[in-house]
């Protein structure tokens, strides 16, 4: 499944005292003892890990495209898909991987701030890898740069970013409403699971168990990954948990799971990458299929959800029930994920090599790259600092920090540095369907979002709202009453900030 031309088969080796030594006078026949042999050296191991990670990372974008199928219909989204296919035809190419990363990061940047949490994280990791590549090329001078060198430059920072994602996933859930079984996002996810799988039993007593259980699992995964002796268990727990979540009908969950799969692999024990590559290639090698043909067939299979998205939107097949992009993507995801996860876990659990220490896992060779995890930390802290509440890794958390009423158990409102969240308005009526929906649902909206929407509205836009106890009626034809309502915010501010609506009264319900 993966190209075999980048790393040559290793000679037979013996292992003593944590070191490997060639066995004199022996040779390793391809496809036999090589499968169990440790990598020839750390450079081979890093190159193997780079190939597996890059392969899994690029494959994840096909599931992003299936989940958010409108991307396929845009030129930028189609360019990302083409770059992914181009990479899969030779998944050992650092240059092709860089092209994919750059196009994908640019695509997400063009969609910001309207991106899901994990897509924003994907773009941040893309930038992290690109920065590591740039540093590696500068450091190498005229010498060619291998995938292993690039991996050693970006992997520590990306591992930190994954642990940080779980940190915020847990921190944001430590609020009063998350533990309320009547409104908790976890309880809601459990209930809606039965819409697709009605045979699943869901009783009231299961809600508190699911709430606490999900929180414990999300806290345990990063701890197990961090501790040297328990990383394999962290990988098993993480993959099992997110495979289960990927079956949920909520849009984006299997896309999220596909993104996590390569990130978990960065924590795999030494030697896992080479063994997994050989396990993935062996069935096709026995069939006599060349690697290029295998990769072409794989790219065709992964492109099926994108093709379904195109056919379902226009032409004679528009609206056909068998061409639902999300369901098509789910079937392809399971066909891909189940065998890959099985081989992944079998490889990880069968390794007997010494696991890397903290210094190797989390200390980057290029120290300035830690600026990107620092930016990720600020992004996750933004709800408590008074900035954005969307794409801050607060997914399915019931978190509320807006206004004078925070529901977090211990993070104080005194941390706020800006007042965007506290300037809330209540929509009374509007010509805009979205704003009318907020009025019907009795939801408050930060004024920032109302002004953003009003400044980009059509000429016949009108709205009546209450802000700070004052009722305002404003129209695009007569903007005077609205004050600065129709004045656009600076471009950079609109790209960085986005806010979700909040409940007017009562507990904070699950928005997403």
Automatic annotation (TrEMBL):
UniProt keyword annotations, A-Z: Membrane, Transmembrane, Transmembrane helix
Region named Disordered: 1-42
Transmembrane residue ranges: 46-66, 78-99, 119-138, 150-171, 205-225, 232-247, 253-271, 292-311, 323-345, 365-387
Pfam families: HTTM
Positions of the HTTM domain: 111-265
Methyltransferase in keyword set: no
Bias type Low complexity, positions: 24-33
Protein name stated in the entry: HTTM domain-containing protein
Organism: uncultured Armatimonadetes bacterium
Classification lineage: Bacteria, Bacillati, Armatimonadota, environmental samples
